[in-house]
Each structure stands twice: as C-alpha cells, then as structure tokens.
Amino acid sequence: MHESRLAALNIVLPVAPVPKFAYVPVVVHGGLAWVSGQLPWVDGGLAAVGRVGEDVTVEQAEAAARACVLQALSVLRGALGSLDRVDRIVEVMGFVASAPGFREQPRVMDAASKFLQEVFGEAGRHARTAVGVAELPRGAAVEVRMVVAVAG
C-alpha cells in the first residue's frame, strides 16, 4: 500500500547510503525500526550546508528536511524489504543547524512531517522533536532520525 502510494506520487527513493562509520542505518527490534540520523544527500552532495538563518534559508532547510526523509525511507526499505511493512511513523527527531537567534526549527521540520503524512496518510502522523544545534555532521543544515512501528 505504501509502495504504491510512492509510485502514485512519482517519488523515487535514492539509493540507500552505506555507513562510513561504526553504526547500522536501521535496527529492527520489538516491533519498532529505529532509523539512524539521515543527512540531506541529493545526487552525491548535501542539499544544504551551513546554519539556517545564516548560510541557509528556511526554504532551503525545508527542502533539506524532505531530502533527509527520502534517505530515511530508503534505508528503511532496505532493512524491511518493503515500505508496506510500515504500520505507522511513531516519532521524528529533527536537528537543525541554527544561527544564533534562529527559532524556526518547527517550521523546518514541518516539511518532513507533511511529507510523511503525504506518503503514509494517517499512519504518517507522529510525535516530533525539532532541536536547534550549533553543528551537524559534514556541515549539513538538517538531520532527521525516525522511529517506525513495523507490521509483521
């Protein structure tokens, strides 16, 4: 059902990235899939680098948040075999590299939340945290991690 929704929306997931460090992209345990933090990789480069409100606009950060979710869905599909096994998105945690005084982290993360709801419908509604941080890996402007309930 979710795979056909992706196709109907003309969404093609990127190739799942291979970790360069000592972690796994997804751990499935006790009916939950824990998706490691994903950066906004697009065509081999980061979609947004720097701090939002300084080097990166809110609109660029919103697009980066969506790119992070695409990466997360890609590694999730790799771990589960199919996104049809997703029962619901439980939680999304968003980290936004923020310039001093920038307070629009929830707006940036809304792009990720709305995208998940577009793909998964009611099952895409989730709890969420949006945190401003000084720096993210590789200078990325946004990082997203998720917890997903898995069926069967």
Please explain how this structure is put together.
This protein is globular. β3 (41-42) and β4 (45-46) form a beta hairpin. The protein is α+β, with helices and mostly antiparallel strands and 152 residues long. The model has no long low-confidence stretch (mean pLDDT 96). α2 crosses α3 (105-120). It has helices at 2-8, 58-80, 105-120; strands spanning 26-29, 32-38, 41-42, 45-46, 86-97, 127-133, 142-150. It has a single domain (2-13, 24-150), classed as RutC-like (60s Ribosomal Protein L30, Chain: A, 2-Layer Sandwich), CATH 3.30.1330.40. Helix content is 30%, strand content 28%. The chain contains three helices and seven strands. The chain has a five-stranded mixed β-sheet with strand order 1-2-7-5-6.
Which topology does CATH recognise? 60s Ribosomal Protein L30, Chain: A
Residue stretches low in confidence (pLDDT < 50, at least 5 long) are: none
How many runs of DSSP E, i.e. beta strands?
7
CATH superfamily placement: RutC-like
Using only C-alpha atoms, the radius of gyration works out to 15 Å
General form: globular
Give the proportion of residues in helices: 25-40%
Note the gap between the termini.
Answer: 14 Å
Compute the number of structural domains.
Answer: 1
Mean model confidence by pLDDT: 96
Summarize the structure.
By secondary structure, the protein is of the alpha+beta class.
Name some characteristics of this structure.
60s Ribosomal Protein L30, Chain: A; 3 helices; 152 residues; 7 strands; globular; alpha+beta; five-stranded mixed β-sheet
